[in-house]
Automatic annotation (TrEMBL):
Transmembrane segments: none annotated. Gene3D superfamilies: Aspartate Aminotransferase, domain 1, Type I PLP-dependent aspartate aminotransferase-like (Major domain). Keywords: Aminotransferase, Pyridoxal phosphate, Transferase. Pfam families: Aminotran_1_2. GO terms for molecular function: pyridoxal phosphate binding; transaminase activity. InterPro entries: Aminotransferase_I/II_large, Aspartate_4-decarboxylase, Ethylene_sulfur-biosynth, PyrdxlP-dep_Trfase, PyrdxlP-dep_Trfase_major, PyrdxlP-dep_Trfase_small. This is Aspartate aminotransferase. It comes from Lactobacillus kalixensis DSM 16043. Residues 15-368 form the Aminotransferase class I/classII large domain. GO terms for biological process: amino acid metabolic process.
Length: 392
């Protein structure tokens, strides 16, 4: 199954780079467990210490902002920001911040949640350059939305030595309940090498930590430490996914391997999945008369709607200011939910600015997205009527 999953990941996301035979895998209970295990083992192995700086591409999936702040970790977050005015494209200038060796790690979601944008060629080149200047940088790259953009190129395939790949089947196969995730690490990787550079005292402590489960703890690979740590060392022998989960990962992987030839473009399931979210994205934006990002680097899995910008486009700047100055951004969300049962997610939790609302294109029948767009505009109209009354 390791071989099947490795070739699946390669077909899906390495774009012409062959890494399947040099990648070690640790299948996890979804991407969720992969993230939790990664933070835990990085800290236990002294690779991330309290006060260390980690870079994060924001806006981002909320756990990447919350976990580093916990008492267990207390990491300092450096924001690599992208903006709606650039269609959420991250600028190489932001990525250059990684050249600073005081930044120990990069936590990156690509294509990201909530903006749905993929790192383009310029961004990947900037990562390659930054890693040359900061060769000990540890990258944790969460690529659960990779298949939703054509010709996706994984950060792991660009800088395999520096990158821990996090993958999940949840999004592409709509199988969140199965809990099917993977951590992938190159056989030669910065995590192992950074462990070999720890102080003698730290090494002695880790020797003791892992000595009950392996004969030569000093040589224990980081991927095996992740696995042992996931069961508090003591239960290392029963760590890992259940047999049905492992078989499910292999079956999903094989559906792709059986149909695809060149980089996944011939997989009809993937084509349909992409078309589905794109149709819903189009319906939503058409109904709101909002501009679309139709580039190939948009996965269309989520939309971020800037409610203030929409207000300004519809009714002018004064109304925008009225809305921003008189209401909390959650008021709009609550009203929308009360009125129509439409529940959107506030973007502030993802590090987006107030007034950005996230819509998932994965949840509802396609026609509902036109309805959501219409209801957002109707609610804005009601606010506007209120505004007109008040300004008389
Ligand atoms: C959904 C999601 C995950 C985790 O999904 P699982 O269901 O636990 O596999 C991880 N990262 C990102 C960015 C996600 O959006």
């Amino acid at each position: 199954m390791r071989k099947i999953i490795n070739y699946y990941l390669q077909e899906l996301s390495y774009e012409g780079t062959n890494l399947a035979d040099e990648t070690d895998l640790f299948p996890t209970e979804g991407g969720t467990a992969a993230i939790v295990y990664a933070f835990h083992s990085l800290a236990e192995n002294h690779l991330l210490k309290k006060g260390d700086k980690i870079a994060i591409n924001e806006p981002i999936f909320t756990p990447y902002l919350r976990i580093p702040e916990l008492k267990d970790y207390q990491l300092v977050e450096v924001d690599l920001h992208s903006y709606e005015k650039n269609n959420w494209e991250i600028e190489p200038k932001e990525i250059e911040k990684l050249s600073d060796p005081s930044i120990k790690a990069l936590m990156v979601v690509n294509p990201t949640n909530p903006t749905s944008k993929e790192f383009d060629k310029n961004a990947l080149d900037a990562i390659r350059k930054a890693v040359k200047k900061n060769p000990d940088l540890m990258i944790i790259s969460d690529e659960v939305y990779g298949a939703f953009v054509p010709h996706f190129k994984s950060i792991y395939s660009v800088v395999p030595y520096n990158t821990m790949l996090v993958y999940s089947y949840s999004k592409l196969y709509g199988c969140t309940g199965w809990r099917l995730g993977i951590i992938g690490l190159n056989k030669k990787n910065v995590f192992d090498d950074n462990i070999s550079k720890l102080t003698e005292a730290e090494k002695a402590q880790l020797h003791k930590r892992y000595s009950s489960v392996v004969l030569d703890p000093d040589k224990m690979k980081f991927i095996d430490r992740l696995c042992a740590d996931s069961r508090s060392i003591g239960l290392y022998h029963t760590a890992g996914l259940s047999t049905p989960q492992q078989i499910m990962e292999a079956l999903f992987s094989m559906t792709h391997l059986l149909t695809s030839t060149n980089g996944g473009s011939d997989d009809p399931y993937i084509d349909i999945a992409r078309k589905l979210v794109t149709d819903r994205y189009d319906q939503l934006h058409d109904a709101m008369k909002a501009p679309k990002d139709e580039t190939d680097t948009n996965s269309h899995y989520y939309s971020l709607i800037d409610i203030y910008r929409l207000a300004e486009n519809q009714y002018g700047k004064d109304f925008r200011n009225y809305l921003a100055n008189n209401f909390q951004q959650v008021d709009f969300l609550l009203k929308l939910a009360e009125k129509n049962g439409v529940v959107l997610v506030d973007g502030v939790g993802f590090g987006a600015k107030p007034g950005e609302l996230r819509v998932s294109q994965a949840n509802l029948p396609t026609n509902d997205y036109a309805l959501i767009g219409k209801q957002v505009l109707e609610l804005l109209k009601e606010y506007h009527e209120e505004y007109e009354k008040e300004s008389k």
